[in-house]
Amino acid sequence: MKSILHNKARAFCFASTLIMSASAMQANAQSLEISADKELLWDQTQSLYEAIGDANATRGTQSISAQTLRAKYDNSTDEQEINRIIAIDDVRFSDERLSGKGTHLDYDARQNFYALKGPGAEINSKDGTAKAKTLLTFDRVNGVMTAQDNGEILMSDGRILKGAFIEILLSETEDIKTIDAEGNVFVQQADGKQAFAKSGRYNAETDKAILIGDVKIIDGDSILNGQKAEIDFNSGISRLLAGENSGRVTGTLVSSGD
């Protein structure tokens, strides 16, 4: 059975539970309120709510908005918990710790897993912004975020890290622990120094990065080449090393007075 509401259907509230974060698993979870400008549909045969036209779903401080929202629920229980939300076109979402945007969001509420598609996909937190051309994923239970296809991390202190594929490991409070990047890795420090490599890892606890494979470090007009680099962001010291079978470390050093 389908039930449809048309024309400026606002503030449509149903008493189901949206599990948007770990706190949403509590027994006293709030209901989800969903609204839309054009149409609201309740398809009981598909266990689905659909909101079309400037649609918005909120639960406490948590919200998802898009041109179209689909919320699937579990009809096997009396609670009829919302277990999946799909947001399509001009997607935006936020809660007390993060916000994001993209063109398509598939949120698995039971697994607390976000799949955010681009172009223009990004997730923002207090540490900075993660971007991807194709897909950002966030496994919130295990604290793992990935950026696929032209991944980019813009850290809040001005540092930039790019790579074809990036994986970020987060702490329980969703602070960055490590960042691993593979393919066309690029690092830019806040002072403008740049580095290129095939792969790299950043450790937030030590505030150091290790770059491996065809490493190039550029500081103004000075260029250093090697196979491995260790960058200490605290001290500002970079060590460039030769590979086991790849010859010498080379560099062109230009002083500021030249």
Could you characterize what this model shows?
The protein is mostly beta strands and 258 residues long. The protein has two domains: 1-83, no CATH class; 118-258, Sandwich (lipopolysaccharide transport protein A fold), CATH 2.60.450. Helices cover 0% and strands 64% of the residues. The protein is built from no helices and 20 strands. The protein has strands at 2-6, 12-17, 31-35, 39-43, 48-59, 62-73, 82-94, 99-108, 113-117, 121-125, 128-132, 135-139, 144-155, 160-170, 176-188, 194-203, 208-219, 222-232, 237-241, 250-252. Strands 8-9-12-13-11-10 form a six-stranded antiparallel beta barrel. β15 and β16 (194-203) form a beta hairpin. It is elongated, with a radius of gyration of 23 Å. The termini are far apart. The model is unreliable at 4-28 (pLDDT under 50).
Instruction: Classify the secondary structure makeup into a structural class.
Output: mainly beta
- Please tell me what the overall shape is: elongated
**Roughly what is the average pLDDT, rounded to an integer?**
83
CATH-defined superfamily of the largest domain: Lipopolysaccharide (LPS) transport protein A like domain
Strand content: over 45%
CATH topology title of the largest domain:
lipopolysaccharide transport protein A fold
- Could you tell me how far the N terminus lies from the C terminus, measured between alpha carbons in angstroms? 79 Å
Question: Biggest sheet, in brief?
Answer: 6 strands, antiparallel, barrel
Q: What CATH architecture of the largest domain do you see? A: Sandwich
Radius of gyration: 23 Å
Helix content: under 10%
